[in-house]
C-alpha cells in the first residue's frame, strides 16, 4: 500500500516542481543570500536580519508550521493557513509556511523558521507544544503563538512564556448547541461522536456534545443515547490519528449499525471517512467541526446538519496584526460564543427540517428547535448557562 | 555549514539501524514489513527504563539501550516463531503486528505511569543519565547547537556487527543459505525454522536500537508518533543498500540527508516537502527497473554474478 502511495506521489512530481520554480524569484532581497548556499541557512540568517532592520516593518515575516495533518486537511490546519494568507493580504507582509509529515519533524521545522528570521512563528495544534515552547525559551527576541494549547513544564504544570501566546477555543460552548440539535434531530434516538486522538482540544468538543444531548433529554423527558464518549469517565472512541480516513469510515459504520443517525467526527480529515460512510446510509447526518463543512467538504454538503466552527483563521490574523503593529502580548486568546471565536454554522439545507422540529426550550415552553438553540446560545453568552468541562482552556 | 551535516547524521541514525534490520531479513529471504511495530515496542521499553528507574550514569544508558533492543527483538521474534512453527506468512503477520503496536502505544500513553498529564501524548522525559550524550561536546566546539548524539556511533557499531554476522559467522552463513534456497539449506542439515527465528530476532533488535535513537536521543521521551515512518523508509534504505551492511549504512546517510534537507528546502525556498518522497520513490523505481526491463524485453540476466547478490535479488523481489 505504501508503495502505491509513493508511486502516486510521482504523478504530482511535475506540478510540484513547477510550483517550486515559480515561487523562488519572489524572494527578492533574501533570495540572493539563499542561493549562495542553500544548506547554510543558519549562517545566512544574520545577513537576512540586517536587511530586515534596514527595511523597517515591511520586512515583517509571519511563519506557520502545520501538524502532520498538512495544510490541506479541510480542517484546522487549513483554517490556520487561511488566517495567515488573509494577514499577508491585508498587511502586505511576507509569510512562510511549512508542512510537517510526522511528529519527529516539528522541532526541526520550527528551528529552521526561527533561524531564517521569522518575526512570529505560529504552531498549529497541540502536538507542536514542545517544539514551540523550546524555541520560545531559546529565542527570547522573537515571538511565537500556539493554536489549541497552553504551555506546560516537564511536570505538566502550566507555565507562561513572555514571548509565546496560546490561542485557545472554548469549543464546548458551540458543541453543546450541536449536541442539543443532534439529539433533537435524531429519528432513531441515538447519536454518536468520535475523536482523532484524545487531546484536550478534541475531548472538549465531545464534552460539550455530551452535555447538549443530556440537556435535551432533561428538557424533553427524552432518552437520546450518545455513543462514543463518556464524559464522566473521559473515555470513548478514537480513530487513533488525524489521517486514516478508512478508520473513520469503520467507526462510523459501527455507529450506524448501532442505530446512530447523527454523528460528529472530531478528527480533522478523518471526518471525511465518516462522511463517506454516512452518505451510504439513508437519513444519517454529520456534524462537522472546525470549519463550516457545508462549504469546505462540499461533496458531502447534503448530509451536513451543521458544523461546530472554531474561528482559527480570524484569531491567527488578529494575532499577526497585533504583533505587526508591535502590540504582541503573551495573554492567551480564548475563543467563545461571545466573541465569535466559536460558533454553530448555519443549517444550510436542513434549515426547514430544523424549524419543523419542536422541543421544550429553557423556559419550559415548546417551540421550534432552531429557536431553542438560539435561546441557549443567548444563555451561554450572557453567562446564565456555563458548560463545565475538565478540558476547558484555563 | 557543519550543522546541516550533523542534522543529516541525526536523521540517518534510525534509518540506518532499522534498514539493517530489514536487510538481514532480506538476506534470509524474509520480507519484514514490521520494523515500524518493532521500533514502537523498542521505544516503549527503552523510554520506560529511561524514566522509571534511577541507575548510575553509564549503566542506565546501557540498560535502556539493551531494553530497547530486547523489546524490538521480542516483537520481531513473534512473526519469526509463527513462520517457523506454523508457516504463517511473515509479510501479513508483521503488517498486522504494526497495527497492534500503534494501538498499544496509544493505550500505554494513556496509563498514569506513562502519562501523568493524562493527555495521552507524551511520557515523562527520559532521565539525563539514560540519554545519549552529544557526540560533539560543548568544550570541543564552544557554542554549538548540534543535536548529533552517540546513537550515531551505535549505528556504526551495528553496521560492523551485521557485516560480521552475515559475512563471517556460522549463523550468517546459514541465514544466507536459507535465503538463497531453503530446500537446499534443509538438505544440507540446517534448521530453516531456527534460522528464521534468529533472523527475525536480530532484525527486531536492530529496529529496537533504531527506537533508542529517537527516545534516548532526539526526542527525549515517548510520543505516539515516535516511530514516524522510519519503519517503512527503512525498507527503501535496505533496498537501495542492496541488503549489504555498508550499503545500507550509506543509503541511510543519503536518506537522512534528504530528510534533513527537506525541512530547509521547505522553509527557505517553499519547495514542497513531498519532493523528498518523490525522489525516494524514483530511487526505488530505478532499483526495481533493471529486473522489470529484463522481464518485459525477455533479456537474459547478466551472468557471472557473485552468488550472494542473487540471493538478495530473490529476497527483495
Q: Give the mean pLDDT of chain B.
A: 89
Question: Structural class of the helices, strands and pairings of chain A?
Answer: alpha/beta
Sheet with most strands: strand arrangement of chain A: 2-1-3-4-7-15
Taking the alpha carbons of the first and last residues of chain A, their distance comes to 43 Å
Structure description:
- The complex is a heterodimer of chains A (394) and B (317).
- Chain A has 15 helices and 18 strands.
- Chain A has 394 residues and is an alpha/beta fold.
- In chain A, the strands form 5 sheets. In chain A, strands 2-1-3-4-7-15 form a 6-stranded parallel sheet, sandwiched between helices. A 6-stranded mixed sheet of chain A has the order 9-8-12-13-14-16, with helices on both faces.
- The longest helix of chain A is centred in the middle third of the chain and has 21 residues, at 200-220.
- Chain A is globular, with a radius of gyration of 22 Å.
- Chain B is 71% helix and 0% strand.
- The interface between A and B is large, with 52 and 48 residues.
Helix/strand layout:
The complex is a heterodimer of chains A (394) and B (317).
Chain A: H1 2-11, H2 13-23, H3 28-36, H4 41-55, E1 61-65, H5 76-91, E2 94-98, H6 106-115, E3 120-124, H7 129-138, E4 143-147, E5 151-152, E6 158-159, E7 164-169, H8 172-185, E8 190-195, H9 200-220, E9 225-227, E10 229-230, E11 235-236, H10 245-257, E12 262-266, H11 270-279, E13 285-290, H12 293-296, E14 304-310, H13 312-324, E15 333-335, E16 342-344, H14 351-356, E17 358-360, E18 366-368, H15 369-382
Parallel strand pairs in A: 1-2, 1-3, 3-4, 4-7, 7-15, 8-9, 8-12, 12-13, 13-14
Antiparallel strand pairs in A: 5-6, 10-11, 14-16, 17-18
Chain B: H1 2-27, H2 35-52, H3 57-86, H4 90-108, H5 151-168, H6 170-180, H7 182-187, H8 192-218, H9 230-240, H10 245-269, H11 274-297, H12 307-316
Helix pairs in contact in B: 1-5, 1-8, 1-9, 1-10, 2-3, 2-4, 2-8, 2-9, 3-4, 3-8, 5-6, 5-8, 5-10, 6-8, 9-10
Amino acid at each position: 500500500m505504501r508503495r502505491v502511495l509513493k508511486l502516486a506521489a510521482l504523478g504530482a512530481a511535475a506540478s510540484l516542481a513547477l510550483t517550486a520554480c515559480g515561487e523562488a524569484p519572489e524572494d527578492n532581497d533574501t533570495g540572493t543570500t539563499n542561493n549562495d548556499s542553500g544548506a547554510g541557512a543558519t549562517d545566512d540568517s544574520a545577513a537576512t536580519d540586517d536587511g530586515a532592520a534596514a527595511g523597517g516593518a515591511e520586512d515583517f515575516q509571519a511563519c506557520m508550521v502545520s501538524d502532520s495533518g498538512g495544510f490541506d486537511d479541510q480542517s484546522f490546519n487549513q483554517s490556520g493557513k487561511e488566517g495567515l494568507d488573509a494577514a499577508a493580504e491585508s498587511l502586505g507582509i511576507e509569510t512562510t509556511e511549512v508542512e510537517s509529515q510526522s511528529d519527529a519533524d516539528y522541532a526541526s521545522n520550527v528551528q529552521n523558521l526561527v533561524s531564517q528570521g521569522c518575526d512570529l512563528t505560529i504552531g498549529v495544534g497541540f502536538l507542536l507544544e514542545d517544539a514551540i515552547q523550546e524555541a520560545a525559551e531559546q529565542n527570547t527576541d522573537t515571538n511565537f503563538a500556539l493554536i489549541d494549547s497552553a504551555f506546560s513544564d516537564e511536570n505538566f504544570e502550566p507555565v507562561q512564556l513572555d514571548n509565546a501566546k496560546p490561542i485557545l477555543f472554548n469549543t464546548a460552548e458551540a458543541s453543546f448547541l450541536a449536541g442539543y440539535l443532534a439529539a433533537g434531530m435524531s429519528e432513531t434516538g441515538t447519536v454518536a461522536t468520535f475523536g482523532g486522538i484524545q487531546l484536550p482540544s478534541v475531548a472538549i468538543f465531545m464534552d460539550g456534545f455530551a452535555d447538549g444531548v443530556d440537556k435535551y433529554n432533561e428538557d424533553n423527558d427524552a432518552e437520546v443515547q450518545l455513543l462514543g464518549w463518556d464524559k464522566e469517565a473521559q473515555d470513548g472512541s478514537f480513530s487513533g490519528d488525524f489521517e486514516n480516513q478508512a478508520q473513520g469510515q469503520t467507526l462510523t459504520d459501527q455507529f450506524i449499525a448501532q442505530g446512530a443517525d447523527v454523528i460528529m467526527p472530531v478528527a480533522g480529515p478523518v471526518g471525511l471517512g465518516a462522511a463517506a460512510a454516512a452518505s451510504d446510509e439513508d437519513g444519517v447526518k454529520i456534524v462537522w467541526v472546525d470549519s463550516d463543512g457545508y462549504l469546505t467538504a462540499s461533496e458531502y454538503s447534503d448530509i451536513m446538519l451543521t458544523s461546530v466552527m472554531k474561528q482559527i483563521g480570524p484569531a491567527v490574523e488578529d494575532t499577526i496584526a497585533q504583533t505587526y503593529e508591535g502590540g504582541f502580548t503573551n495573554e492567551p486568546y480564548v475563543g467563545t460564543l461571545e466573541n465569535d471565536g466559536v460558533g454553530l454554522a448555519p443549517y444550510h439545507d436542513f434549515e426547514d427540517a430544523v424549524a419543523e422540529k419542536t422541543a421544550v426550550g429553557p423556559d419550559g415552553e415548546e417551540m421550534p428547535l432552531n429557536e431553542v438553540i438560539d435561546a441557549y446560545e443567548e444563555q451561554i453568552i450572557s453567562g446564565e448557562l456555563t458548560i463545565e468541562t475538565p478540558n476547558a482552556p484555563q | 555549514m557543519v550543522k546541516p551535516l550533523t542534522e543529516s547524521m541525526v536523521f540517518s541514525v534510525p534509518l540506518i539501524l532499522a534498514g539493517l534490520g530489514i536487510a538481514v531479513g532480506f538476506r534470509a529471504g524474509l520480507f519484514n514489513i514490521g520494523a515500524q511495530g518493532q521500533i514502537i515496542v523498542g521505544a516503549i521499553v527503552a523510554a520506560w527504563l529511561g524514566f522509571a528507574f534511577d541507575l548510575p550514569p553509564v549503566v542506565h544508558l546501557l540498560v535502556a539501550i539493551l531494553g530497547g533492543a530486547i523489546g524490538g527483538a521480542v516483537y520481531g521474534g513473534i512473526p519469526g516463531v509463527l513462520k517457523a512453527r506454523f508457516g504463517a506468512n511473515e509479510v501479513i503477520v508483521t503488517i498486522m503486528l504494526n497495527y497492534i503496536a500503534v494501538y498499544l502505544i496509544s493505550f500505554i500513553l494513556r496509563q498514569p505511569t506513562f502519562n501523568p498529564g493524562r493527555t495521552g501524548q507524551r511520557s515523562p522525559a527520559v532521565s539525563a543519565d539514560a540519554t545519549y550524550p552529544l557526540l560533539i561536546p560543548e568544550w570541543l566546539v564552544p557554542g554549538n547547537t548540534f543535536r548529533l548524539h552517540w546513537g550515531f556511533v551505535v549505528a556504526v557499531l551495528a553496521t560492523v556487527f551485521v557485516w560480521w554476522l552475515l559475512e563471517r559467522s556460522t549463523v550468517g552463513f546459514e541465514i544466507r543459505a536459507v535465503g538463497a534456497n531453503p530446500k537446499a539449506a534443509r538438505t544440507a542439515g540446517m534448521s530453516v525454522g531456527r534460522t528464521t527465528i534468529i533472523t527475525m530476532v536480530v532484525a527486531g533488535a536492530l529496529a529496537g536500537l533504531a527506537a533508542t535513537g529517537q527516545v534516548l536521543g532526539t526526542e527525549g521521551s515517548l510520543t505516539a508518533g515516535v516511530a514516524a515512518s522510519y519503519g517503512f523508509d527503512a525498507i527503501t534504505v535496505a533496498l537501495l543498500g542492496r541488503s549489504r551492511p555498508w550499503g545500507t549504512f550509506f543509503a541511510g546517510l543519503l536518506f537522512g540527508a534528504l530528510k534533513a534537507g527537506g525541512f530547509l528546502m521547505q522553509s527557505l525556498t517553499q519547495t514542497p516537502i513531498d519532493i523528498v518522497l518523490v525522489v525516494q520513490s524514483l530511487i526505488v523505481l530505478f532499483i526495481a527497473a533493471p529486473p522489470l526491463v529484463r522481464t518485459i524485453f525477455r533479456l537474459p540476466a547478466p551472468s557471472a554474478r557473485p552468488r550472494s547478490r542473487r540471493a538478495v535479488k530473490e529476497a527483495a523481489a
